[in-house]
Design a protein that fits this description.
442 residues, alpha+beta, Dna Ligase, domain 1, D-amino Acid Aminotransferase, Chain A, domain 1, 3 domains, five-stranded parallel sheet, 36% helix, globular
């Protein structure tokens, strides 16, 4: 077992990793920008190292600073968390070149899966259905127009690298194609230093469903059920639940079989997520996130598996404590992401409790929420025997959760949870747009 690990991240995910490490008997080293010097992860870690000023480009994204902080504090491994450098193959290679363990898959696997064009080809190779699209990347508007003639409008232009809705444009007519191709490519270049884009047939209102995977790099692959992430605003997830109301046992089995084949062949190591678009009785491979996901707690609740613990063991010892063939799904879990709508000082905080309620956050009374990073400040997660009871529990917990001093989306999440359409379970990724005006008045 390793003795000390550096967390190359901040906020709630850093706190979550520290908790898992403490239970494993692993010391932790936190890194922080000057804006985060009083952050909860800095307080909880065994050591903390300042790595630069507030902009992430001058702190959390500086590979050399992070690696040197690990070396200078005697760490044996680096956990990248989510976002920032968590899917950066160059960072993973640099970590390994210094003789440290990267808590994630092999850099070559990250490269393969990080390029969505290559990932589509890989998924197809292992028998997973893919959304109809271009064969490889596109850059020439004329060739793109010819390719789209066979697909039919609407189509979606996607960045080959990155995510979060950047470098993504929906095109509904031939007249819009050339301009949007150029815009998407520029946006991808700006955000991911890679302007490569490709085109897929656009599905108007599919479900967004993902499988949680754990693998030890030796061919043992565990599937921890699926999560439904269809409630999204501008391609940013707001609410996740497990299991999905739109996936039956047959589809779940087919998805899992294809995912296991793919992850086993890749000798994948650690935590990962394979994402699908689901339309009626069909599902289509979308991408793989070669890291732990923000929404991993819902899978932890319905399986009883500590995903961060298993991820660390898989990457440091090539083993898992769980038996891949003995993962049972129990009950229903829902997560609401709590976002700050403004930065500022948290003057008061009340966290809900009771059976089956969990709040993962870096907030505390008196902490400062800086304007420099992602707006998510916490995740409220509930678990109950049925979806109906989980919804009632989430509604109750949202009423109890109180964050004062900053504006948050708590009232909006409460409104979505209570909406008849959400309660019905019959919705897709277009759901938020359907109710946007009502929600944003909440």
């Amino acid at each position: 077992m390793i003795k000390r690990l550096l967390i190359a991240n901040r906020g709630e995910i850093a706190v979550r990793i520290i908790r898992a490490c403490r239970e494993l008997g692993i010391e932790t080293v936190a890194v922080y920008s000057t804006a985060d010097q009083n952050n909860l992860h800095v307080r909880f870690a065994d050591q903390a190292v300042c790595i630069g000023p507030p902009p992430s480009s001058e702190s959390y994204l500086l590979k050399n600073n992070l690696i040197m902080a690990a070396v200078n504090t005697g760490c044996e491994a680096i956990h990248p968390g989510v976002g920032f450098l968590s899917e950066n193959a160059a960072f993973a290679r640099a970590v390994r070149e210094k003789g440290l363990i990267f808590i994630g898959p092999d850099p070559d696997v990250i490269d393969l899966l990080g390029d969505k064009v290559q990932a589509r080809d890989t998924a197809k190779k292992f028998g997973l259905p893919i959304t109809p699209g271009t064969e490889g990347a596109v850059s020439d508007p004329g060739l793109a127009a010819k390719a789209v003639e066979h697909l039919g409008y609407p189509v979606i232009i996607k960045a080959a690298s990155g995510g979060g809705g950047k470098g993504m444009r929906i095109v509904r007519s031939k007249e819009e194609l050339a301009e949007n191709l150029s815009i998407a490519s520029r946006e991808a270049e700006s955000n991911f230093a890679d302007g490569t884009v490709f085109i897929e047939k656009y599905l108007e209102n599919p479900r967004h469903v993902e499988l949680q995977i754990l693998a030890d790099g030796r061919g043992n692959v565990a599937v921890l059920g699926e999560r439904d992430c269809s409630v999204q605003k501008n391609h940013q997830k707001l609410i996740e639940e497990s299991p999905s109301p739109g996936v039956d046992s047959g589809m779940r089995k087919r998805m899992a079989e294809g995912a296991v084949r793919m992850f086993r062949e890749l000798k994948y190591q650690g935590a990962g997520t394979i994402e699908f678009l689901v339309e009626e009785n069909n599902f289509y491979f979308m991408e793989v996130n070669a890291r732990v996901q923000v929404e991993h707690p819902v899978s932890e609740y319905i399986t009883g598996v500590d995903i961060i613990r298993e991820q660390i063991l898989a990457c440091t010892e090539s083993r898992m404590e769980i038996d891949p063939g003995q993962v049972d799904l129990d009950g229903w879990s829902i997560e609401c992401r709590i976002n700050a709508l403004s930065p500022g000082l948290v003057t008061s905080l009340y966290v809900p409790g009771g059976p089956g309620v969990r709040f993962d956050s870096f907030l505390y009374q008196g902490c400062m929420v800086p304007p420099h990073y992602d707006s998510m400040v916490g995740k409220l997660i509930v678990h109950a025997p049925t979806r109906e009871r989980a919804l009632a529990r989430m509604e109750r917990a949202l009423y109890e959760l109180s964050v004062e001093g900053i504006k948050t989306n708590i009232s909006r999440q409460r409104w979505i949870i209570r909406h008849p359409k959400f309660r019905s379970g019959n919705f897709g990724t277009g759901y938020y747009e359907e109710i946007r005006e009502e929600v944003e008045r909440a």
